[in-house]
Amino acid sequence: MPELPEVQTIVSGLKSKILNKKIESLIELRDGTVRFHSVIKQVEFGVVDYIHRKGKYIIFETSNDFKLVIHLRMSGKLILAEPFKELPSHTRAYFVFQDKSKLIFDDVRAFGKIDVYEKNISVPALENLGPDPFVNEDQFTPRYLRSIFKNRKSPIKSVLLNQKVIAGIGNIYACEILFHAGISPLESAKNLSADEIANLHSQIMKVLREAILQNGTTISDYKKIDNKTGNFQNFLMVYQKKQCECGAKIIKIKQAGRSTYYCEACQQLSRSAAQHVSRSAGYSLTC
DNA sequence: ATTGCTTCCTGAGCGC
DNA sequence: TGCGCTCAGGAAGCAA
Q1: How far apart are CA A78 and CA A10, in angstroms?
Q2: How far apart are CA A172 and CA A207, in angstroms?
Q3: Cα separation of A52 and A183, whole Å?
Q4: What gap in Å lies between CA A52 and CA A198, rounded to an integer?
Q5: Contact at 8 Å (CB) between A14 and A36?
Q6: For the whole model, what pTM was predicted?
Q7: Which nucleotides of B are covered by protein (CB under 7 A)?
Q8: Is-catalytic flag, A2?
Q9: Residues A230-241: pLDDT tens digits?
Q10: In angstroms, what CA-CA distances link A238 with A59, A184, A192?
């Protein structure tokens, strides 16, 4: 499942491989994968001149003033392919560049989409996103989190997954971040103390930064654009784990329809700020 | 305004 | 071996 670190890894790869390439065509193999918003289908995109992301959305901007907004959802992959290479079995769409190389959008579960807009049109999905911890680092502060959490009764795990609050965190990193912050996923967001929020903020930055360094987490589907796996799965502490490093059993529950993994011993409910002990530095990169 | 449920989709893994 | 069932989950859309 591509979340912020996986999408960041993909965007970095794309920047080095397809920036300034001319899009000759965008072929759709499965209806509904590519959606044109007030743009005709036979559009000449021109050259890919800017590649960036916000949250889990990948955005290509082109020299003829178009914007391609790509979301990989559960199982989407962007794979670079040499000319004449056979297409993967779940190819939903692909770009052909002027040099005949291809960028393939492969997606088993077919939830992913490519949305085409004119460059100066605002994209609702992007407008509704909260700050991204890296793209909007100046807005994503402990103070911002305090203001948002103040009135939220929802469990903190669900709030972390809310893209309107923070753009980019998905199920795996929500679980991992809460473990490293020593906060129970069941805790109501409004119960968190200022110290706990400050610690949570720093764990969000640390876990995501570390995952980016490791090129993301490959659990099942995620692949880099060279079709290779990420490495952060080797550093997961709770997600799909049976036992915590403290020796306690990892608990699996459902929250808002999603699996949550946590350690009841390390992540206790309703501790006062005074009792709170911040987890020490975190990663043992010797796994 | 916020929260929670359903839908989309397909392959893996399971029990029988 | 093969069938049917459950599960995985991001975000949109809707209901409460």
Answers
A1: 8
A2: 11
A3: 32
A4: 28
A5: no
A6: 0.91
A7: 2-11
A8: yes
A9: 888 888 899 888
A10: 32, 12, 21
